[in-house]
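Re-running the complex after MR caught last week's input typo. The corrected sequence lines follow. Everything else is unchanged.
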Amino acid sequence: MKLIELKKVSFNYRVIRTTSNSLKELFRDVLHGSVRITKLEALQDITFTLESGKVLGVVGGNGAGKSTLLKIIAGVLPPQDGEISVQGTVAPMIELGAGFHPELTGAENTIFFSALIGRDVKEVKGQLLEIGDWAGVTDHLDFPIRSFSSGMIARLAFAAATQERADILLVDEVLSVGDEKFRSATRKRIREQLALGTGVILVSHEPSIIRELCDEVLWLEKGKIRLLGETDHVMDAYQASQLS
Amino acid sequence: MNQSRSIKKEAQLVRLLVSRNLTVRYKRSVIGVGWTLVNPMLSSFVLWLVFANNFGQRLASGQQYAPYLMAGTLLNAFVTVGITMSANSILENASILTKIYVKPQIFTLASAIAGLVNFAVGLLPLALVCFIAGQPLSATAPLVVFVAFFLVLFVAGAGLALSVLFIRFSDSQSISIILLNMLTYITPLFYPITDLSPKMQKVVSLNPLTSFLDCFRWSFSGNASATLGDWIYIAVSGIVMFAIGNLIFSKSWKKVVVMLG
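Corrected-run output:
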């Protein structure tokens, strides 16, 4: 089943070139006729599909458009051109700990984050212990998040996002954080969900992770598709280009 | 797309956001919810010290100046703080909105409702002040619910419209403070409207907040007169403001979301 389908999707940032972002100064600049709008192309003509049970890796240098692509799939950014269809529930892990408030407790944050990604709060309340156990932070759930280490926050956010199976997982660099134990636990959980038909989009700078998990790889360069295809084929070319 | 979530899920998120908003605010301050009780009393007390001998003497017969001030202060705090907070809510939650798909309007609405909760808490000290001033609460007091409902729509609508400006222009916040200040002065917060020149009376009675305030004072303790026209005016201005705010917001969201980073 096709979970994600993008057809010629483009996205550009329109930037108003003024000296500052002040209303008074914009008014002055408009009067002087010195306002310029430039387009920064972040993505151009991106076409691909993601089937259920598959992992698509996304690689590319800084500013290649990887995060913009994830944000468009997550629904956070509206594409300006092209068609996009996303079927099913999405668990976005573009940044682990996004939506956590430092003053609120681990449990409060888990509930709030789950509501943000569209889970049922009553169910999540019953799963708190399970989530805490998986993340290894059960004893800390009643303390404010500011007392958590960054590793604990990452584990808790990952546990909350994956507690219930989502149809689509969006993963940005998340698998490279934490210690070896956490890394292998996250891989295991992703594999479990893959087996149940979840589709994954995985952005990473680490070739070993991409090679290990991905069925296909999309190589982005300056917002365009440089290469899209079977993992080893794309990664050989990508890594060769990185060395030269 | 997965983006059409059920109303139930969105209502649950609004509820959580309101309580998060209030918990965070109260956790930061030592006296917590006590501050919400004391703050309007303190500011109306100062106004009372300054104006009791002139404006206070010229209210219509049967009206009491202390509850008059307190009701004005409460409503004004709801409007100015509420609009500022809800206009800020989108910027404040930018880190969420750029990473997780949530209807952004939910944050604005939740801030306006958090303001409503503070307003509702403030009704307790207002009742106390009425009691001290020897003014009994009216049987119409439950009608305050309608005033509050339309005021939430008004605040959320204004907040939505402003939030777009707040994202785009960093100095729009200080400009909005000035505008809200002006709005405060053309609301009969601490003066009776009859004290103004005929021309100014017209201006002040065009301000929807004047009608909100009249309806509020009248229904709570009969401390003003409110006409049917006032009730219609608050309903219309609440609904229209909410509609306009939503329209402006949904038209510009696509353009401003990229500025959130």
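None of the earlier attempt is carried over here. The interface with chain A takes residues 1-3, 5, 9, 12-13, 16, 20, 23-24, 27-28, 95-102, 165, 168-172, 175, 254-255, 257-258 of chain B (CB under 8 Å). The radius of gyration of chain B is 19 Å.
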